[in-house]
Amino acid sequence: MTVAFTSFPGLPASVAAARRFVVGAVRLCPRSTAPDEVVERAELITSELATNAIRHVRHEVARFQWLHRMEVLIRAM
């Protein structure tokens, strides 16, 4: 299992930084075979979570943290 951890200040610019962090963590994860669609969804979810975290707290005191544990299961049905 690979775990990546970071934190960002509660600023609008941190949304893009959080997206880059998650995409990088997914792509650099050893043995990662995540298809582009999975990476894109992870990026979108990260963007939504980071935006909401910043929107609903006071910007000057907010920090949000990401503990990223990536497990992807792909099954053919």
Please provide a written account of the structure.
By secondary structure, this protein is of the alpha+beta class. It has one domain (3-69). 47% of the residues lie in helices and 18% in strands. The chain has two helices and two strands. The chain has helices at residues 13-28, 36-55, and strands at 3-9, 63-69. Helix 1 packs antiparallel against helix 2. The longest helix is centred in the middle third of the chain and has 20 residues, at 36-55. The two termini are 26 Å apart.
Radius of gyration: 14 Å
Overall number of strands = 2
Low-confidence stretches: 70-77
Sheet having the most strands: 2 strands, antiparallel
Structural class: alpha+beta
Number of domains: 1
Shape: elongated
Distance between the termini: 26 Å
Fraction of helical residues: 40-55%
Protein name: Histidine kinase/HSP90-like ATPase domain-containing protein
InterPro entries: HATPase_C_sf
Task: Please give the structural blueprint.
Layout: E1 3-9, H1 13-28, H2 36-55, E2 63-69
Antiparallel strand pairs: 1-2
